Amino acid sequence: MTTVLLASFLSSLWTVAAVLDAPPSSYLLAWFGIVLALTDLRHHRLPDALTLPLGAALLLLQFQRLGEAAFGALVFGGAHLAVRTWRPRFMGGGDVKLAAALGAILTAPLLLPAAILSSAVTLAIAAVKGRRAVPHGPGLLAATWALTTL
Fold it and tell me: Which residues cross the membrane (predicted)?
């Protein structure tokens, strides 16, 4: 059942990206995003085996604007690292690495909206699940996909 849902959701994201003539990063983010979000929701982990290749691939896709991509990765990842350092129980190390990876495809004007939207998605997940401690990775992934694709 999980495989069917995963395939259905992935095909939906790919269809939307295709209709909107989205950049290649949208397709890559959809594929990795679904797998990472499900892993984080189920195990509260974002494995390096997925986040690091995603980050490298997203950075490589931005070769024409490498300076801006590195800036976005540094700022978005750095902001999450600051939260992780200040309140370690609020955010895991995988969230910091994922935020740095996603920052590579977020332009400077999208960094603040991405932070706000990802927090809103995480709060919505907490409300639906009825828990205070929920993973932040799905919120980061959903917000970044939406802001870079739609």
Answer: 98-128
